[in-house]
Design brief:
The complex is a heterodimer of chains A (489) and B (280).
Chain A lengths: L21 H11 L1 H4 L4 H27 L14 H25 L6 H20 L1 H4 L8 H4 L6 H21 L2 H12 L5 H10 L7 H34 L11 H27 L8 H32 L4 H7 L4 H20 L6 H28 L14 H21 L8 H9 L5 E2 L2 H13 L12 E2 L7
Antiparallel strand pairs in A: 1-2
Chain B lengths: L1 H17 L1 H16 L17 H5 L9 E6 L8 H10 L9 E6 L5 E6 L8 H5 L5 E3 L5 E3 L9 H5 L5 E3 L27 E3 L4 H5 L5 H5 L5 E5 L4 E3 L5 E3 H7 L15 E4 L13
Parallel strand pairs in B: 1-11
Antiparallel strand pairs in B: 1-8, 2-3, 4-5, 6-7, 8-9, 9-10
Helix pairs in contact in B: 1-2
The chains are: A mainly alpha (489), B alpha+beta (280).
Chain lengths: 489, 280
């Protein structure tokens, strides 16, 4: 196979290039393309059909809801926002995790990211699409959705929500697509003359005449750097604006200054957990243990727990400011001791304490443990979003009893369809594209390692050199640990 | 009432001058009102029709009326006749209490009743958050919903501090067939998946009639008022000089800290603590 020539100066640690080589890349390519080359087995078909059935059920439920009104999803005047807006926030939140983690690891030159980026970016793309789609069941008149464009009100937070989500979706698509270009060209070349018509159309057109020459590589690299830099503030803006749909009302419990960072951190936290879940699923399904090791999981685990600690800190900060003064405490009582207490404490125990313990205890600090913890993080952060949405929405603003929201088969089915759509879309997507970014893997391989530990000063020096053009005397090379190429299992 | 007029003028000036959105809203309302003239006078377009787009932005031109309401809590016995009359006239469901009567407790533990229509705020939060300008404010100071445009996002329900908005959640409500299409002033029948609220019965007012709730109140609790002519009338035939009545009876507005400047005033008289911000 052809190994495209290495040209970037990026992360140019002095490593003998010939150490790595064709053998390594052959293995990588085999594994990366195992989802495409091999015919899908019975289990693949079974899973896809099951997930497909759930999605179809969700569509049926939505049609039912369109016909019978949103009351059929459990909504009423005293709980006017509920599960669908929590779904929107949750799905777009996990998308943010995938995109930003990939972007940050790319910008800081963490080459251990290499086997994770494609999966993380694909997850980001798929979940932002699903999260955006949940706006439709959330609306009473989805048929008039385009009124937002035709009669825009620039003072409405929802208009800016729409703009932010749209911009972010475009950025995520580009972020996913750019590293895919060389892979597409590679596949197109590999298939050679025997490719079918759709393959020729698909791979050739998507590879944009990629030849792999130096000029193209430079352009691609620059494009990736720009989009990696852009996607971080973009994602911050999306979740800040999403939070302002709540925080710009005068409702106690929603009108909170802490909301924008609160939402941003929640997104990163749940997103990291979702990356773990997706990586774990594909690692098991396509036997990628050789490239994705326990070490990847523990690193993501550390990151996740750090974000989790920030999140519970913000939760506490939110509750204590209003709780202590006692001015508008109804929603806090409902959250901590009232009817939403089971959900709130589920988040505290399953979504915060459990992952901390799993990562803290050496015995559970492995792929399995962290995957289970991530599962609970994702679930409990959805529950947490409901706890953020419901108590302030159902509180009486004048007098009288609290409102309540009851799940119905309609809202449950539609939500489950969204959940099922993540693995469904990913499994189908990876029938057509490789599981790894071959470029990233090659780079990691040439660095002689997918395990490169850098101190933060080194990272900073590298960023300064790359993007600002300032040469900073990097710390002694001795601090840099270059570890063994790959860990066997 | 001169003060209120100035407030409103200033407010509209700010809206008109600083955001194109404000102008668009006025224009679209006018276009809507001009095209949808009805035989019953339901449009309530006096003071709006015949203006050109240029003069619309100029909000200095006086209108005939600035509608307001006074609710004298000393008279309310909590019979909810106002709610029933409103629901009958607008063919609403039982849950859609565009004017609701709340049972409240005052600061020394006695209970009293409080009818709550839409406050017709001069600075309406629901209007600011609507992403499609489905909520708009007429030259007569009435906040209305264009249910033909509403996308059903319910952001206005989140923003309203008075819980005054009601959504059409369920299909299968038996609506009457009406001779004319629903208008923002007379949104009958309500449309599935859109939001509705008290319209001040602005069509009635412009025809010289009381609003349905005021007319239906057997106690004369609710006065319809006009800030231009400075007059208020209730179902008992009492006619008041609006500004004097408000001044002499220490009228208050509900939740003034919300900075909404309601066009609905309450007369207390039983030691109520209406201006608190939160349900206790």
């Amino acid at each position: 196979m052809t190994v495209i020539e290495k040209t970037y100066e990026a992360d140019a640690v002095e490593v003998n290039h010939s150490q790595s080589g064709n053998h390594w890349m052959d293995d990588v390519t085999d594994s990366a393309m195992s989802s495409m080359k091999n015919k899908p087995g019975k289990i693949w078909w079974l899973i896809v059909l099951l997930l497909g059935a759930v999605i179809v059920a969700g569509v049926v439920a939505w049609i039912y809801q369109l016909k019978h009104g949103m009351g059929s999803a459990g909504y009423n005047d005293r709980s006017f926002w509920a599960v669908y807006i929590a779904d929107v926030i949750t799905f777009i939140g996990v998308s943010y995790g995938g995109a930003v983690i990939s972007a940050i690891l790319r910008l800081t030159g963490q080459s251990w990211r290499a086997p994770l980026t494609r999966l993380a970016e694909a997850m980001a793309l798929v979940t932002v699409a699903i999260g955006g789609a949940f706006i439709f069941p959330h609306l009473g008149r989805p048929d008039r959705f385009l009124n937002i464009v035709v009669y825009p009100n620039f003072s409405s937070p929802l208009f800016w929500d729409f703009m932010a989500i749209l911009t972010y979706t475009v950025a995520t698509t580009i972020f996913f697509y750019l590293p895919l270009i060389p892979d597409m060209a590679f596949i197109s070349k590999m298939l050679g003359e025997k490719k079918k018509l759709w393959q020729r159309m698909f791979y050739s057109s998507l590879s944009f005449n990629w030849l792999g020459n130096e000029k193209q590589k430079k352009a691609l690299h620059r494009g990736l750097t720009i989009i990696s830099l852009l996607i971080i503030p973009l994602a911050v803006s999306v979740h800040s604006v999403l939070s302002w749909a709540f925080a710009l009302t005068s409702r106690p419990g929603w009108m909170e200054t802490v909301f924008p960072p609160y939402f941003v951190i929640a997104a990163l936290y749940s997103g990291t957990a979702m990356v773990v879940l997706v990586v774990a699923g594909f690692r098991k399904g396509y036997k990628l243990q050789r490239f994705i090791t326990d070490r990847h999981f523990t690193r993501l685990g550390y990151l996740m727990v750090a974000l989790g600690l920030v999140y519970i800190y913000l939760t506490l900060a939110d509750l204590i400011t209003e709780g202590y003064t006692g001015i508008t405490t109804g929603w806090i009582q409902q959250t901590v001791t009232g009817s939403y207490a089971p959900a709130f404490w589920f988040y505290v125990f399953a979504g915060e304490l459990l992952p901390i313990l799993v990562v803290a205890i050496k015995k559970t600090r492995n792929a399995t443990g962290i995957t289970i913890a991530s599962f609970f993080v994702v679930i409990s952060l959805w529950v947490k979003r409901l706890v953020i949405v419901l108590p302030p929405a159902t509180q009486p603003l004048i007098a009288g009893p609290w409102g309540s929201y009851h799940f119905t088969w309609v809202s449950i089915t539609i939500t489950l369809a969204g959940v099922a759509a993540i693995p469904f879309l990913l499994m189908i997507m990876f029938r057509f594209i490789p599981l790894f970014s071959l470029e990233d893997m090659e780079e990691a391989g040439e660095l002689g390692s997918i395990e490169q530990v850098s101190t933060h000063t080194q990272i900073l020096a590298r960023i300064l050199k790359k993007y600002v053009g300032v040469e900073v005397a990097a710390p002694a090379k001795a601090e840099m640990t270059v570890q063994a190429t790959v860990e066997g299992e | 009432m001169a003060e209120n007029k100035i407030n409103r003028r200033n407010f509209l000036k700010i809206v008109g001058a600083t955001t194109a959105a404000g102008t668009v809203e006025l224009i679209t309302y006018r276009a809507y009102a001009a095209s949808g003239s009805s035989p019953n006078g339901w449009n309530g377009t006096s003071g709006v029709s015949g203006s050109s787009a240029a003069s619309m932005a100029n909000t200095e031109s006086p209108t005939d009326h600035q509608w307001a309401m006074v609710i004298d809590l000393r008279n309310c016995n909590g019979c909810k006749a106002c709610t029933a009359a409103c629901q009958k006239a607008h063919y609403l469901t039982e849950d859609q209490t565009w004017i609701d009567v709340f049972s409240m407790t005052d600061s020394i533990g006695r209970s009293y009743f409080m009818p709550r229509p839409c406050m017709q705020c001069e600075n309406p939060p629901c209007l600011h958050v609507c992403p499609v300008h489905a909520t708009f404010r007429t030259d007569q100071g009435v906040v209305l919903v264009n249910q033909g445009r509403c996308i059903g996002c319910r952001m206005c329900m989140a923003a309203c501090p008075y819980q005054a908005r009601y959504f059409n959640w369920n299909a299968g409500v038996n609506y009457p067939s009406m001779p004319i299409k629903p208008t923002p002033e007379m949104p009958v029948p309500q449309r599935l998946g859109t939001v509705g609220k008290c319209t001040f019965c602005v069509g009635n007012l412009n025809d010289g009639l009381l609003s349905e709730c005021a007319a239906g109140c057997p106690m004369g609790t609710i006065y319809n008022g006009d800030m231009i002519t400075d007059v208020g009338v209730n179902s008992m035939g009492n006619t008041i000089k609006l500004s004097e009545f408000l001044y002499e009876n220490d009228a208050v507005s509900f939740k003034p800290s919300q900075n909404t400047h309601p066009r609905v005033w309450y007369i207390l008289g039983h030691g109520q603590n209406l201006d608190t911000d939160d349900a206790s």
